[in-house]
Design a protein that fits this description.
Elements (H helix, E strand, L loop, with lengths): L1 E4 L6 H10 L4 E4 L2 H6 L3 E3 L5 H10 L3 H10 L3 E4 L1 H4 L2 E4 L5 E2 L4 E7 L13 E9 L13 E7 L1 E5 L5 E7 L1 E9 L2 E4 L7 H12 L17
Parallel strand pairs: 1-2, 1-3, 3-4, 4-13, 5-7
Antiparallel strand pairs: 5-6, 7-10, 8-9, 8-11, 11-12, 12-13
């Protein structure tokens, strides 16, 4: 069972359908007790970081999410859902994230050594693995995914970067620490490779969960 956290913002129906397409049993919910019982959690998100974080807290879902992660429940953050895993974001001011992974979310700089970048970063790009993890099973070293974002994660621990993509700079396309995963791209829009990511997550065994201690994010 894959439990999708419904906090009123995000690509909920499309990612729900994508999990169903790979044979996953899906529950979409905003009930705290459902998060407590979840075998696997998915945190989606689109739009502004601050609005997403505020809505999670308004619905009293932050505590259940953090408790589930601390118990070792596998969690997948998607797009802004991945960004929310970090301590804070600089998008339209400084906003506090969930603090599951140490680091910040920063804006792409349009200026660099090469051509001026178009912001947002939009379209297909390759994700280059940094190390192995179950989420990458069945994917090659040149798998393409669909991105739409103006901000990217800057993890404090380089080891948390599972795969990188180049857009002016090398940024984290995927992150992983113990039972926590995140993807900056939209797997539900990334055709075969994206569906493979979702299938791999849906097949993670809860019996092999490991425990992740909460990181101390800014208060």
């Amino acid at each position: 069972m894959v439990t999708i956290i419904d906090y009123g913002i995000g690509n909920l129906r499309s990612i729900e359908k994508a999990f169903e397409a790979v044979g996953g049993e899906v529950l979409r919910t905003d009930r705290a007790d459902d998060l407590v019982r979840a075998e696997r959690l998915v945190l989606p998100g689109v739009g502004a970081f601050g609005a997403c974080a505020d809505e999670i807290r308004h619905r009293d879902l932050e505590g259940p999410i953090l408790d589930a992660v601390a118990r070792g429940t596998p969690l997948l953050g998607v797009c802004v859902g991945m960004q929310l895993l970090f301590d804070e974001s600089e998008e339209m001011g400084v906003h506090r994230g969930l603090g599951v992974l140490p680091g910040r979310v920063v804006r792409f700089s349009p200026n660099g050594d090469g051509p001026r970048l178009k912001i947002p970063h939009m379209g297909w790009n390759v994700a280059v693995p940094r190390h192995t993890a179950p989420l990458l099973d069945g994917l090659g070293d040149d798998a393409y995914f669909y991105f739409v974002h103006s901000y990217h994660a800057a993890p404090a621990r380089p080891a948390d970067i599972l795969a990188t993509t180049s857009y002016g700079v090398d940024f984290p396309a995927m992150v992983h620490h113990e039972n926590v995963y995140g993807v900056q791209f939209h797997p539900e829009k990334s055709q075969r490779n994206g569906l493979r990511i979702l299938k791999n997550f849906a097949e993670l065994s809860p019996s092999n969960k490991t425990s992740l201690q909460r990181s101390a994010g800014p208060q």
